[in-house]
Amino acid sequence: MLCSDGTKKLSFGGSIKDGDLVIVYEKRDVMKAVKVSETSVLQNRFGVFKHSDWIGKPFGSKVLSNKGGFVYLLAPTPELWTLVLSHRTQILYIADISFLITYLEIVPGSLVLESGTGSGSLTTSLARAVAPTGHVYTFDFHQQRAASAREDFQSTGVDSLVTVGVRDIQGEGFPDEYSGLADSVFLDLPQPWLAIPSAGKMLKQDGTLCSFSPCIEQVQRTCEALKSNFRDIRTFEVLLRTFEVHEGKIDSCQGEEGLSVRSPPCKRRHRSSEGSTMQDSSSSPTIKVRPCADARGHTGYLTFSRLQCLS
């Protein structure tokens, strides 16, 4: 399902097959992940959809129900997977993910260590970033969460790029077998400062580290721990503001909620000598732009640093 040939772009190619994972798109904020099975059906407000009708169609296809309703069948890209996955823990969203992949300098061929795995939102994007020759080794102390993450990575087609381990990184540190091999380390832990000495041993010279924390007090203790062996310590808060863009009519006599405003004055309709009705052009269709009401605010702080080179 997922093409990882080094000579090609990492993408979902070919047609939908029995057993594939697809993202069923109803509208912008209503999507779900569905595993295709030839004998199964999907029922929603638009009608009944037979999975057998989906098999053989390319990703992105529009499919009809028995009532004439429709949905779109999208590929489970890391961006869409982040929006539909099961939240076993708090997850990172697209704004934070794209920012940290850039600042950690993760490229194809990189070896990345991650703790903890959680719901696997970030891990899926890391896998695509290191493909086709890199690898992500991710660890979680919770055995059931780790097992669920393995199943998800197999469903989304990145299991060949990800190895999931069960380990308490805060208490035990990263396995010694990765010492000096990691290009980047990412920490999403309650007490990341406890794992920083081990992370420093794992990194190559000039390697990068990022720690995600929801509270500024965690950031302060993390930065204190980083001072001994790391440099270029920086903390960011990524805030994303989304806008709605749609076509509508704006009457100069009315405000956004239909309330009258004092200026400019509204011209009355009048009839021309031919008897036709004339109307002020201010009520003609126009593009309306406004911030989304459900935009997310603070998610957490991203603290970056670089391992000091030996003199």
UniProtKB/TrEMBL annotation:
Which reactions are catalysed by this chain?
adenosine(58) in tRNA + S-adenosyl-L-methionine = N(1)-methyladenosine(58) in tRNA + S-adenosyl-L-homocysteine + H(+)
Stretches of Polar residues bias are at 274-286
Localization terms from the record: Nucleus
Q: Where is this region: Disordered?
A: 254-291
| One GO molecular-function entry | tRNA (adenine(58)-N1)-methyltransferase activity
Q: What family does this belong to?
A: Belongs to the class I-like SAM-binding methyltransferase superfamily. TRM61 family.
Q: What is this protein called?
A: tRNA (adenine(58)-N(1))-methyltransferase
Identify the species of origin.
Answer: Salix purpurea
Lineage of the species this protein comes from: Eukaryota, Viridiplantae, Streptophyta, Embryophyta, Tracheophyta
